[in-house]
Predict the 3D structure of the following.
Amino acid sequence: MNVAVCLKQIPDPANPGKLDPETKTLVREGKLIMDDSDAYGVEMALQLVDKAGSGEVTLVSMAPNDEVSGLRNALAMGAHKGVLISDPVLQGTDALGTAKVLAAAIKRSEFDLVLCATESTDGYTGTMPVQLAELLGLPAVTFAKHVEVDGSTVKVQRQTESGYDEVESPLPAVLTVTAGVVEPRYPSFKGIMAAKNKPVDMLKLSDLGLDAGVVGQAGSGQKIVSVAQAEARQAGEIIEDEGDAYENIVAFLDKLKVI
Amino acid sequence: MALSTIWVLVEVSPEGKPLTVSLELLTKARELAGTVEAVAWGPSTASIAATLGAYGATKVHDVGDLAGALPGVPVAAALAQAGGLPDVILIPHTYDGRDIAGRLSVKLDKPVLTNVTDLRLDGDAIVVGTAIFGGSVLLDTVFTGSGPGLVVVKPKSFAAEESGGAAAEVVALSVPDTGASNGAKIVNRHVEERVGPKLDEADVVVSGGRGLGEAGNYQMIEELAKLLKAAPGASRAIVDAGWVPYAYQVGQTGKTVKPNVYIAAGISGATQHLVGMKGAKNIIAINKDKEAPIFSVADLGIVGDVHKVIPKLIEALKARG
């Protein structure tokens, strides 16, 4: 069983995000790390390959400046190899353009399953995985909270507004997995050392046979015309509890006529 | 100036009712375009034609029963080959809505804007508003190419108001052959029973977070919610930890709520959570850490231990009867 996992390398979300004043796109410079949301897909892939008894987990990522730090995080967890597409012309690429790039990279090999997070932590458009599936001509099951492979079928519990659906799909397929679907393992010391020598295939856009016009700012078909600060909500009264702060809550609810 | 035509995707609940978000989008569409039409799927579109008409749709394009397929592939395929596509297609920000948007985006080779919370016109161009960085920065975006513009809008961005229109005319929209991409089928549906009012409709919401310490303590949140006729909610942290089902989650990846009162108990207020609740009229936060970001949006902040404050609050509310 061969599984591809789409992995986004993002600036540390603990640091406040920034927009480039010129292009008004997210600033993605400095050290990037693996998006936490992708750790679930990596773990799921490792478990599925392990259960199948053979196969590989391949990471596929698009990032600026030949960035591989985030890929190394996932290779340290146990993924077998990586593919990185890094090219200056990709700056400003939107979700559809990203899907085109990743689809072209994924088509270079054969996979039984492609796993993605439901959405990235920094951009959270949440459409890239389905766009990828459409470009690959594959079925997609989004918001998978339980995944089982049975021969050439994948059985998924898919989150819904009111509960969940049991969905079955033939392989190959694209899945997006929710956080919490599995518990991502911590990389072992051995894993971290091994990750340094695992292969990462470095690709440019031209290696994928894609035209520069479909990616980057020009290919995005959208333009940010204004950036404004939202009106900040004012903090109200803060009380240190001395054992009777519940009375303040009762009084507050009373004033609002909720009780 | 206004747009000529907008289509609104109407998602229908398992009980056969249009989701409120679709009615919100129909209402907003009336303000932006001369003609508003709906697109719906499922076994009984005819039964909602009157409701859709009342919210301003003159026509409903009916994709019909999907025979167990997930909506993404067939609905997008039907739309992609429909004649006379509109200037803009408004899509609810739901599980199925995003699936349809992604598929349609590729089929039409058009960008899609998601997480949208505002729409307005600048001349005859649609300006799409989104909030980033936890809602602290507002962006306006325009499409630079030809339409249709694909716009995925968050629930609760607009109010739903009837226009008193006549029932929408139902016209069939056929699904072309979709091939291997339509292979995923729903074999069984599970509805998780929830007690009390619905999270996104409740006047009061009581949410718990990691500060509760362990799964068993969520029962406090449920008890408090019951006393206040509130809906119980949760932060992503405890949903990921499996303490409560995903349907309880408030935040970026969960529900957006705008109740009269929101009580956050043991929730630190990560950006992910704030996005989903800071539209509440009144916010009460209880947290041990006085530096917690939740206090920056709270009207009443209690720096204290939820395990002490909430039981006392429950006792006091019970005593009032």
